[in-house]
Prior knowledge:
Elements: E1 9-11, H1 20-26, H2 36-53, E2 59-63, H3 66-75, E3 83-87, H4 91-102, E4 106-110, H5 120-129, E5 135-141, E6 143-144, E7 149-150, H6 153-162, E8 168-172, E9 191-195, E10 206-211, H7 213-221, H8 231-238, H9 249-265, H10 267-288, E11 304-308, H11 315-326, E12 328-330, E13 341-345, H12 352-369, H13 377-387
Parallel strand pairs: 1-12, 3-4, 3-5, 5-8, 8-9
Antiparallel strand pairs: 2-10, 6-7, 9-10, 11-13
Bound molecules: pyridoxal-5'-phosphate.
Amino acid sequence: MVAKSGRHFLQIPGPTNVPDRILRAIAQPTIDHRGPEFAALGKEVLEGLRAVFRTSSPVVIYPGSGTGAGEAALVNTLSPGDRVLMFETGHFATLWKDVAVRFGLEVDFVPGDWRTGVDPRVVEAKLSEDRGHAVKAVAVVHNETSTGVASRVGEIRKAIDAARHPALFLVDTVSSLACLDYRHDEWGVDVSVSASQKGLMLPPGLSFNALSQKAIAATKAARLPRSYWDWQQMLRDNAGGFFTYTPSTNLLYGLREALAMLREQGLDAVLARHARHAEATRAAAKAWGLELVATDPREQSACVTAVLTPPGPDGDAVRKVALERFDLSLGTGLGKLKGKIFRIGHLGDFNDLMLAGTLAGVEMSLALAGVPFRKGGVAAALDRLAAR
Ligand SMILES: Cc1ncc(COP(=O)(O)O)c(C=O)c1O
C-alpha cells in the first residue's frame, strides 16, 4: 500500500463523494428537533425533495437505509397473502423480493438474466392475464446498481395502463434519483423508494418514500405489521415540519444543502451530466475491448457501468490493484456476478477530470492485474469529453 496523499477516489456506485459544502453543512450544532428552528428545516427539506422526485405528493424521510424504505413501501400498502409482481433484474431486486417473501406476500418473481431490465411487454402480459386483479402491486428497481441496467419505468407504467390493471406501482430509485430521468407523478408511481447516499451526494443514513394519493389511501386498509415505518403518524407530524421520532438532524442539514446544489445546477443539467459521463465510460470500455453487463443500449445506466472481465484475473483482482496502488475504490460484483465484474460508479458529485482520473486508474489497474485488454480506453473517453 502506498502512503496516501490527495483525495481518495470513491468510485463505487454509492455511497458517493460528499461535497465539502455538504460536509460543512452537516457539521453544524444539533438543534432541538421539537423546536421552531427544526420545524422550518423539516418543512424546507420535505418540500424541496418533491422537486427531485418530480411530485406534488408528500415525501416521507426516514433515518434509515434504502432497504428500510423498500420495506416501508411494502408494509404500508399491502396485506398478508397479497400478490406482488417483481422482476429478477439483479441483486437489489432479489433482496427486495426476499423482504416481500419474509412478510408473507405471494411474489411472482419473473426470472431474469441480470443483463436486461424489466420487459414492459411481460408486465402487460402478466397483468392482462390477471383478470381478477389478484396482483396488488408491481414492484421494480429503476436502476439495478448491481448490473448497471436501468429499467424503463415510463414504459412499464404504460404497460400497466394498457392492461387496465389497478395494481399499485412501487419503484426503487435508490441509485437513480437525481441521476436518471425520473418522474414520480407523470409515471403514476405510487411509492418511490430512495436513499441519501447516491445521487443526493449525502452520506448514508436517510431514506425516502415518495407517495401518491392512491398509496396514502391504500395504507388505511393495508394489514402488514408496521410501526417504525408507518406513514400515518409521520404524515401528521410532517405537516408541522416535525418527525414522529428523533430525526437525523445533521443529515437533514446536509439534505438542505444538497437540494440547494441541485437547484443551482438545475436537475436537467445534473441528469445530462450523468448521461455524458456514462457515455464516455462506455466509450472507454469499448476501446478496452471489454463487455458491459448491460446488453441493451436503451438500458445502459447513467450512474454505474458494470464491466465483465474476460477469463483470467477477475474483477476483484482489478479492484484490489486499484485500491492498493491508486487509492481508487471500484464496485465489486454482487450476488451472481461476484468475481465476474467490476463496477465504475459515475454518479453524484462528479466532473470530467474526476472521471478521467477514475478511468486512468482503471486502465492502469487492468494492466497491472494482468487482464487481457486493449489500451486506449482513457483516450477514447477523453475524446468524448472534449467533444461536448
Ligand atoms: C438499487 C438499490 N436498491 C436498494 C439498495 C439498498 O440500499 P441500502 O444499502 O441503503 O439499504 C441499494 C444499495 O446500494 C441499491 O443500489
